Structures are given as structure tokens and as C-alpha cells.
Amino acid sequence: MSVGFTRRSARTELLSARALPQQKVIAITDKLAFEPNAYKVITTWLSEQYGAKTCPTEVSSLNESSKYLLLILSKIERKFEPSKIFGYIAQCKKNATIDHVFVWIVEQKLQEAFLRPYIEHMSDSVITFEDRQHLSLLVKKITGAVTNKYYEFDPLKDSIAIVETKRTPPTKPSTASVELDPPPNPATLGTFKIDLKDEEVAAKNALTLPFEFYKTLPEGGKILYHPDAEDDLDEEDPDDDLLI
């Protein structure tokens, strides 16, 4: 089964314009191993929206306070417990001097699988690089509404331009319909006749089999024994004729 994408629009726009404005905590779920270039990617997004020479501060000790922060989760997890990481992100959300907190997530590198869904829950928007050409963008609005859209992009360009697409459900391999033959008639499988006419059924039912003759005798099912001349019917020693 495979997931398909079809373009919904020819309009091209910057990913940063969709993901950054009014969104404080932005989670990036990386399925393409972009993590070594995380700092460069975030710097490009900030420069596109806020001017050149705008760079993030990479978080290493969970006490950084800057306008733009970059937290690479696989590095931080090795140094701090999950509760400390969650607490730091929660503090950043309340800090008015911080505009954006970018949390870069590579799930394969995490020791605790629950970190990704928990941080995505805390985030205001979630960017997921699905494959080499497609990404999804989930945005939580102030009103409480949530949008989740899919986009096509070119990973070879420094500036990520996106075109909205529609994700189609997984396709299942088609199976040709097989017509089942009706069950065969047993009467046609041999050269002899197995069907009976009405008169043959009546004759069959009227037939008395040898083992059923006892029904017609006065004695019923009693066993009749007729001794031979050599039989010894002495009740006191019934086995005397056996010479033992």
C-alpha cells in the first residue's frame, strides 16, 4: 500500500510564512535526517521572515533565554530528564521575551518514544517532513481551531517553497473477483444411479433386513440356544467338558 499526493494549487509560498507567524513553539518532526542542517534551516526561515542575520540560539543547558531558540531534542535528551525538558518548554511559552522555540525531533534517535507526541501536543505548530517531496503542517490557532495541510517541496533548495497538495488514502492492490462454481450434483459424478423414484423409496422402507427378524418372532429379542449331543449341561460343573 502507498500514500499518494495530488496538487490542489499551483500557488507557491514560503514554508516559513505559513509556520512561523504567531506560533511560539514549533515542533519539526524530521523523517529525512535533516538534523545536521537544523541550524541552517532555522536560520533561513528566520531570515525570510525577520531579515538577514537573524539566527537562533541553540539550547544546551535549559537555561537559555533568547528571542529565537533551537532545541535539538536528541542532544538534550542525553543530558536531561523528560520532565526537565517539558518544564523548560513550558517556561519559554510564558516568557514574553521569547518569540519562537524550534524543537527539532528525530524520533529514531530518541530513547523515550513518548517525547515526540508530548512535545507535539505542547507545540503551536508541527512541521513533519513526510518524505523527500512532501511535508505536513499542523497549525493550532488562537481560536482553538486546528488545520492540518500537506505540501510539496524541493529539498535541494535552501529556501523551502511549498505548494499545497491533497493526500489520498493508501491504495490497496486490486484483487480480481473470482466466480465460484456451484457445488456439483452428486448424481452426476458416477455411472450408477443414486436417485430413487417414489415407488423405489416405498419398497426400500418396506424391506426387512436379516437382523430385524426378531421383531416378527414371539420371543422378541430372546436368544435361543439348542445344545449339541456333546454339550454338558450340568449346572454344578458347567466347564467339566473342558477337561481342566
UniProtKB/TrEMBL annotation:
One example of a Gene Ontology biological process annotation: tRNA wobble uridine modification
Region of interest: Disordered: 224-244
Domain of life: Eukaryota
Major subcellular location class: cytoplasm
Keyword terms: Cytoplasm, Nucleus, tRNA processing
GO annotation, cellular component aspect: cytosol; elongator holoenzyme complex; nucleus
Compartments in which it is found: Cytoplasm; Nucleus
Keyword Lipoprotein: no
Coiled-coil boundaries: none
Pathway: tRNA modification; 5-methoxycarbonylmethyl-2-thiouridine-tRNA biosynthesis
Key word Ubl conjugation present: no
InterPro entries referenced in this protein's UniProt entry, alphabetically: Elp5
Molecular-function annotations in GO: tRNA binding
Ranges annotated as biased composition (Acidic residues): 229-244
Protein family per UniProt: Belongs to the ELP5 family.
Protein's recorded name: Elongator complex protein 5
Organism: Anopheles christyi
